[in-house]
Amino acid sequence: GINAETWDPRGIDTSMSLYSFLRGFFRLILNIFFSDIEVVGEENIPREGAVIFCGNHANQFVDPLMILTNCPRDIGFLIAEKSWHRPIIGWFAKKMKSIPVKRAQDGASSGIGKIESCVGDILKGTDTQFTKQVQVGDRIAISGLEEVTVKEVLSASELHVTPALEEPLAEPKSYKVMKKVDQGAVYSAVWDSLKSGFSIGIFPEGGSHDRSELLPLKAGVALMALGAMQKHKIKVSIVPCGLNYFQPHRFRSQVLVEFGRPLEISDELVQKYTTDKREACGQLLGEVEQALRDVTVNAPNYETLRLVFMARRLYKPPQKLTPEQHLQLTRRFAKAYTKFGSEPKVAELSEKLMSYEEELASLGVEDHQVVRLKSTGRCEALGLLVFRTFYVLGWFILAIPGAILAAPIGAICKYLAVKEAAKALKASTVKWEAKDVIASYKILVALGLVPLLNIAYGIIMAVVLNTYWYNPSVNWIWPFVLVIVLPFIEYFSVRSLELCLKIVKSFPRLWLCVVGGKKKDHVQLVRAQLQDEIRGLVEELGPKMGDEFFDQRVIAPELVQKSKRRWSRYNRAEDPFQDVM
Description:
disordered N terminus, 20 helices, alpha/beta, 8-stranded mixed β-sheet
């Protein structure tokens, strides 16, 4: 079979017609799975020359498809060799010009004994056999900690590793040993491909994950770019690709793809690469990491990410922002929270935001709906509630037949995807819940299950017709028509139910407008006060962020002027936070 040593784009069926067909096919699939795909920064993509597309890896097999279906360049992604040999995934990978890579983690073995402590760059074990199981260059993966590389095997129970670990172990932990892999053949294939003007795609985090921030980057992308420039005397651009998903594992969720400005590698850095590879690669890798951070949203955990999203929603003005502005604003709030999160004012505001979020959940409304509570009168809300109830009922009735037929697909896809996620979580040391594999397996299972199930429905129809209405001249036509039409019926049902769900989400807001009372007034007061506090903090702490606050503000200051409400008229007993803190 083909592997990294024998890979050659000319030796695989890479005809433009097949590649274009598959790209169009996957674009259709992704537009069915995701309700909205926004693309920003397409003008940053070089139209010719050697390019390495470098993305964050948050959604397993969906990530490369998301980039190549929204990019005008043909791209061959590096793919794990174990995936290359899978029946369905491997076939598509070969046809899409992918390059197989043997990864150390794919051959990881459980370590003998346990890691007892990590003091700086020295790992100490209990009942370990490092002299027999570990060699210089191997990597050690300890659950919950950064992977380390073995510099020296000191004894059966001690290793000298890099980088030094800063967090001490609270208890002995199991570990995995990942043997050093010679990737010389992969680099040669990549360098030759870049020389021919072929674009390469890579995820330098090394594997997909569901964390809220980037993992430490592997040096491969730097070695590929600098090696190609040194060996073939060509220019190589690195384009950062930010894949920003909103609940990536959910069907009909949203995603924003951002192509950042290409990194141009200087001749000086290539010259440094010839004399000091480690230093040159480290420098370029730092630039790549910063470029990726500039097109993604990073936070230490999901709780922080929720606070960042809430703060952004409250800060922004009523005017509609572009997807790019939304993303820039979110990134800056995340960056500011990382820098100022421990300050008393920010910590106090965070508590208020969490309380506000809890109040919204108890009322069943979302933040953007609170703004409309004041503008919707009681009679208008009651009329809308009645009208929308019948409107939803009508669409729901139309969607029932297709929904029933598609129900087995949804149930089986979810079951198998969750099962695969549990398997991936067990094998990983970096995943939190392994949600990054769910969307991929939902799509893979559906690709095989939808045609099979619809063919089964056609066979059932043929059996019924031949049993109760024997007419050979037409009995074969209707089952065939059913198999062709069913996907459209099922898709119509999905879109109808999606519409129903969006409308149903407005019911709690309308009901709150009808019943009115203190709850309605209270949540509006809380929001207005939080909005004032956030805007005030931005003006106070923003200048400490540097030039990007003054020279590159996403929203002009005059658009976010503080509310004219006079909160001083409320005494302590009427403090809007009194009932929610």
